[in-house]
User: Fold (wild Malaysian banana) hypothetical protein from Musa acuminata subsp. malaccensis.
Amino acid sequence: MSIEIVAHIAMEAISILENIHSKGFVHGDGKPENFCLGPPGTYEEKKLFLVGLGLATKWKDSSTSLLVQYDQRPDVFRGTVRYASVHAHLGRTASRSDDLESLAYTLMFLLRGRLPWQGDHEQNKRYLFCKKMTTSPEDLCFLCPQAFKQFLEYVVNLKFDEECNYAKCISLFDGIIILAIVMLILVCLHVMKLMHQVAQKRGHLTMEEEDDKQSKKKLRLGMPATQ
Assistant:
């Protein structure tokens, strides 16, 4: 996908996760297959949706607003290994940051078409865990706009009980969209300028052709050509 499209997805997906988290839930299975657009032909056909809530869990108690008890069970894994957070591989209680880390991996997959830990050993959870641990944000986001690296660095450093600054994360991708709009405007202006130059050149040639026709007509009629 183009950088601009992935940036749009990032902004909408972060907003969706903010809404889910505000209701006290963690999605728990962020991946490309769980993002979809609305029904074709409706006003929601270009709206992004996040589905697949089968692994959703609470991150806080709805009655007391207190955080759920933190736990770690290495023998328990929830999610999709390719996009799961490092904490998910360790069997830790799901938190909001895990959703955001999975989103970061999803965005890089959409942007690059492949993640470093894809391949023959992909179903080996231990291998994927080690590969994710040793792949730095710089390496994962190599040659990509800084916004993607900054987003990944921010979310992997969030603590279990720490709330994400969703507005800040969304703003990281604003620059990509603005730059795309500016570039589109510049391209349009350049095309308009070329079209104007071509039109002027054609008009000039047409006038020369008309003058040439008039001169030849006068010669055929025996009229003296204008000096």
In short: The mean pLDDT is 87. The CA atoms of residues 71 and 164 lie 21 Å apart.
